[in-house]
């Protein structure tokens, strides 16, 4: 038993009812820099937490353990030389026949683990930034060629993100919607620019060609292993609840719920922005249009969320 205590790789300290140190093991001395003689008899919180922001938390914790609860926390403690380090603390009350005798506390130095976690988080943030830059670049490649859609994807992305946030969607869903919107028309890269910017109505065969863009977008984007279902969302952004959309005529629940958000944002942006052959129309017109098609073409919750954004005047396309 004694061997296990003294040679345990984790720092262990045994304290009495008043939280004064009775015994420490070798790892405790190594971790905190105090000798056994310097530790025994001292109040444990004064030894490892005094003079830090964590003193109050340490004394609170001691109090909780003294009243019989086991405590498991991650916090910071101080070494003899004053350096703070991240530590996982498990403190167990020693109770025998309903009498409290003291506390058995284990300290695990987790600074390496925390450092590694921070590195991973920074790396994930970096990757996300690169994803956004890559997707934005991809989106603007299309807009450079086709002035007709210049800014369209970015404005749809802004509105779709606002709707998703209003719908209280999870953060990764909001991100997915934003990313997918930025490239939702990327498949138009395969359509001749004259057709895209044609002021008059399209010939049936031209319209057939335009309707291929969600699938072309899907083919382009599914080459990339995104952490979000971007290709599938792009594939479905022209599908409508009643099956009247394209390219596959999906219905209701068959349509990805995130694609249903972009569908509304796409239509609203298209109505409100200027086109070579007409001026943009006011928000009220766009809202009337989506309200009229609520439940037929568009998801009712998405329509409600979008309408409330404009009615409450909390959204604008302008930067
Ligand atoms: Fe589109």
From TrEMBL:
SMART domains: HDc, PAS. Residues 127-319 form the HD-GYP domain. Residues 149-271 form the HD domain. Gene3D superfamilies: Hypothetical protein af1432, PAS domain. Pfam families: HD_5 (PF13487), PAS_9 (PF13426). Residues 1-48 form the PAS domain. Residues 71-122 form the PAC domain. NCBIfam families: HDIG, sensory_box. PANTHER family: CYCLIC DI-GMP PHOSPHODIESTERASE PA4108, CYCLIC DI-GMP PHOSPHODIESTERASE PA4108-RELATED. This is Putative domain HDIG-containing protein. It comes from Acetomicrobium mobile (strain ATCC BAA-54 / DSM 13181 / JCM 12221 / NGA). The lineage of its organism: Bacteria, Thermotogati, Synergistota, Synergistia, Synergistales.
């Amino acid at each position: 038993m004694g061997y296990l205590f003294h040679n345990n790789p984790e720092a262990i300290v045994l304290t009495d009812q008043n939280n004064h140190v009775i015994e420490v093991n070798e790892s405790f001395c190594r971790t905190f820099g105090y000798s056994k003689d310097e530790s025994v008899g001292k109040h444990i919180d004064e030894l490892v937490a005094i003079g830090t922001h964590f003193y109050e938390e340490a004394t609170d914790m001691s109090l909780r353990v003294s009243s019989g609860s086991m405590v498991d926390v991650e916090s910071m403690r101080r070494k003899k030389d004053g350096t703070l380090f991240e530590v996982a603390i498990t403190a167990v009350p020693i109770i025998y026949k309903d009498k409290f005798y003291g506390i058995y506390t284990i300290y695990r130095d987790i600074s390496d683990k925390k450092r590694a976690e921070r590195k991973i988080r920074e790396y994930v943030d970096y990757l996300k930034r690169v994803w956004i830059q890559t997707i934005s670049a991809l989106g603007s490649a299309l807009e450079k060629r086709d002035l007709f859609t210049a800014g369209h994807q970015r404005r749809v992305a802004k509105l779709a993100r606002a709707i998703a946030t209003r719908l209280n969607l999870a953060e990764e869903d909001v991100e997915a919607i934003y990313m997918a919107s930025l490239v939702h028309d990327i498949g138009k890269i395969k359509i001749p620019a004259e057709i895209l910017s044609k002021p008059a109505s399209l010939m049936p065969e031209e319209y057939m060609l335009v309707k291929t863009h969600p699938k072309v977008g899907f083919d382009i984007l599914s080459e990339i292993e995104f952490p979000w279902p971007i290709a599938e969302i792009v594939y479905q952004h022209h599908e409508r609840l009643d099956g009247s959309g394209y390219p596959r005529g999906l219905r209701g629940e068959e349509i990805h719920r995130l694609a249903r958000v972009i569908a509304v944002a796409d239509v609203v942006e298209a109505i409100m922005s200027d086109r070579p052959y007409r001026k943009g129309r006011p928000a009220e017109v766009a809202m009337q249009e989506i309200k009229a098609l609520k439940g037929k073409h568009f998801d009712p919750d998405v329509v409600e969320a979008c309408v409330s954004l404009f009615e409450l005047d909390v959204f604008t396309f302008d930067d």
